[in-house]
Amino acid sequence: MKMTLKSAALILATSACASLAFAASAKKADKPADPAVVEAYLKATFGKASPEWQAKLVPDETLKTCNKYHNNVPAAEADKIMAREAARVVYPADGKFLGDWKSGAKIAQSGLGGRYSDKPGTVAGGNCYACHQLESKELSFGTIGPSLTNYGKDRKYDAAEIKRAYTKIYDSQAELACSNMPRFGANGFLTEQQIKDIVALLFDPESPVNK
Ligand code: HEC
Fold first, then answer.
1. Residue to mutate (ligand 1; options 131, 198, 201, 209; most atoms within 8 A of CB)
2. Is the pLDDT of residue 121 over 70?
3. Looking at the domain assignment, is residue 183 inside a domain?
4. Is residue 45 part of a domain?
């Protein structure tokens, strides 16, 4: 499914809403919610959104499977998801994974993009601090994801780890089925250059993440 630049944050919000609706209804009836109920709930929640935004509420194959199993997918389904998502990862044609960490630091901090209020042409950010600690001097960060402080240093700046981080950021579900982390590259939310810059933030020895 081809996503537009603005879709990733909404998809994230969408899957969170879907999980909530599923959870509430499953608890009451002690069985999985009827997907039709969830769909109606979502439509009502985003009822005033434009048709373009409505189209973004439709989950792709991977999200459908994650919703069906409340993210606890059986191993065989997890393998299918990871294979499908791995096939979506586009690696840099020049073979270089490391961009400019200073630019990466700005992208990691920015929560712009994917919002109704964004003006046309807004450059999307990764909003990494919403879920991760990165630079230790930054006081405000979320803890949904693990701390990424000293990420490159702890991994001895290993080439395989650099590639793995690029893959994770490009398409989190290529590394872990039903991950709560957005699929930044696969959904067209961040560009290849932006992802390279963020990988440099994690792996450049000069980056404050490794100081
Ligand atoms: C909505 C929350 C969320 C956001 C936003 C998010 N992540 Fe994550 N991230 C996670 C979670 C949760 C994990 C743990 C593994 C998993 O569930 O996929 C993770 C795992 C990772 C890992 C692997 C960590 C390890 O154990 O080796 C890296 C690297 C990473 N994230 C980088 C980033 C970067 C860089 C950004 C910003 C571009 C970002 N993440 C944005 C939630 C998030």
1. 131
2. yes
3. yes
4. yes
